[in-house]
Amino acid sequence: MKKRSDHPDSGYDIGDLLGLGQQSVRKNYYPALQDRIEELEQERNRYKWLFENALHGIFQANLRGGFLACNSAMARLCGYDSSEHLLAGVVRLREQLFCRSAEFDTIRQELLDYGSLSARETTLLRADYTPVHVAITLLRRPDLGPEIVEAFVADITERVQAREKLVQLNAELEQRVAERTEALQGANTDLHYQIEEREKVEQELVVAVDAAKEANRSKDKYLAAASHDLLQPLNAARLMVSALQDSHLPDKQGRMVQQAHRALEGAEELLTDLLDISKLDQQAMNPDFAYVNVQDMVLGLGEEFSAMAAGKGLDFRVRSCPAVVPTDQRMLVRIIRNLLSNALRYTNAGGIVLALRKRATLLIVEVWDTGIGIEQYKLKDIFTEFHQLLPQGTGGRQGVGLGLAIVERMVRILGYRIDVSSRPGQGSRFRISIPLDQAITEQQSVPDPAPPVRVDDLDGTIVMVVENEALVLESMVALLERWHCVVLAVGSAEEAIALLDDGLDPDIILADYHLDLNRTGLDAIEAIRKHAAREIPAAIITADRSDDIRGLIRARSLPILNKPVKPNRLRALLGSLHGET
């Protein structure tokens, strides 16, 4: 997106943001940090390129004035040669962008009342004063100004034309049916002809609907592919920042690295949500049922969120009971984690309770909070995509509104039920009801959770990393060496076998799934094990989250770690594999 502050004379770069812009001496003292900062800047430029080349128009504007920033797609949609021309040409949205000023006034008032509008159809004025039909999604940004908004704009001219054509066809069809019906009074043969004609038109409508559904699926596939490609560089950035966090940096640089870490976590959360919602909409995510100790799961999530709640000064409590049920552990953890994240996000005082209890034939999982609450008329909308609740007084944007949409879809896939009750200003309660028909009795034995892994346990562990992306490989090496591992970094099975021939014998293998020349990490692990003549503990790391790939990996009885890799999960995985050696 082109911004007015991007002028070459503005004088700011990533070094200035970290307090290093004019401090050459500090650069000399921290060359490694500067290198990492430059690499992060490269990643930022990649994301900026994707943003600039988005297919839909995106802009930021002041409702009382004109554009503040926009991308090239928005300029093309409005008939301008470039973003700069659009910024200069439209200084009043009401009179120069919207075809109908009254409609702009209505949109502005709704934004001031509710904070957002989703997929509103309207007409905009192009540079040549011709109208263009669009669907516009607007979000008010009170943190940037009382009437600052951000928008996504899609050209729906073809859809409008198709709709008008459909209306015309329906009108013509009704006229023809009326004419044929009148003719039926005199000729039975005309009746059969009219029936055949109507069936033909209906079939054409079915084909048109199928084509529209296919276009929507293509959009979802594009989103999934784009999110998958972005996970690779994001994974490298996360690993590098994690390595920096383990370094002994001065307080100021440490805070900067922590801020970068939080920013990357936010980007990862957004991309993961987009990828999951795309897979759910395509019905490409199927549950993998297995017996799960829900009590251990709830206690683990309680430990994870209690620290975050304490950081906000909130009271966090867990109430549990023994329970083992057949479920998809990955989906159920995601459901509860999203509900807890939502409660934490919208609770500024009081506390949160995560409760597990049994009621007749149901296992109940509840999340209570003392947050801002939800008004009754909004309850039906909270599970829709991009729906957000903005707490009064924060003046900021909270998330992107996909968490509860993912919860609702996963609950439906698992065959569970979700209920919500809330009072504005007092808090909310979300309840998941899980059937106990096939539950294991609580007296039956279940595996004990693995003990926590200490970094010291990995001292001297020889880890072979098979990764064809040089940046990801370098980041993985930096992180593992911080944990005092001996790292054998290779890009293929052939390079790994060459190291084995040199007498280097790994304790653990970590292999990326997609390697060069259409080879996979499964092939690499098999080749290395065969050459070493022993079953070396191994795991697959991949950004591909499809059920087909997950099934192939599980068929080999190999653990899976999804990119972007979370350091604590990688550390736990290494500890588990180290115990097998």
Give an account of the 3D structure.
It is a single chain. The protein folds into four domains: 2-158, 2-Layer Sandwich (Beta-Lactamase); 219-281; 290-435, Histidine kinase-like ATPase, C-terminal domain (Heat Shock Protein 90, 2-Layer Sandwich); 455-578, Response regulator (Rossmann fold, 3-Layer(aba) Sandwich), CATH 3.40.50. A six-stranded antiparallel sheet has the order 1-3-2-6-5-4, sandwiched between helices. Strands 8-10-11-13-12 form a five-stranded mixed sheet, covered by helices on one side. Strands 15-14-16-17-18 form a five-stranded parallel sheet, sandwiched between helices. Helix 16 (521-532) links the parallel strand 16 (508-512) and strand 17 (538-542). The protein has 18 helices and 18 strands. With 581 residues, it is of the alpha/beta class.
Task: Describe, in short, the structure shown.
The protein is α/β, with parallel strands linked by helices and 581 residues long.
Distance between the termini: 51 Å
The CATH C-level name of the largest domain is Alpha Beta
Tell me, what's the shape? globular
Q: Tell how many strands the DSSP assignment holds.
A: 18
The CATH architecture term of the largest domain is 2-Layer Sandwich
Q: How many strands, which pairing sense, and closed or not: the largest β-sheet? A: 6 strands, antiparallel
The unreliable regions are: 1-20, 391-397, 438-455
CATH homologous superfamily classification of the largest domain: PAS domain
Structural class, judged by helices and strands? Answer: alpha/beta
CATH topology of the largest domain: Beta-Lactamase
Number of helices: 18
Q: How many domains is the backbone divided into? A: 4
User: Strand-residue fraction?
Assistant: 15-25%
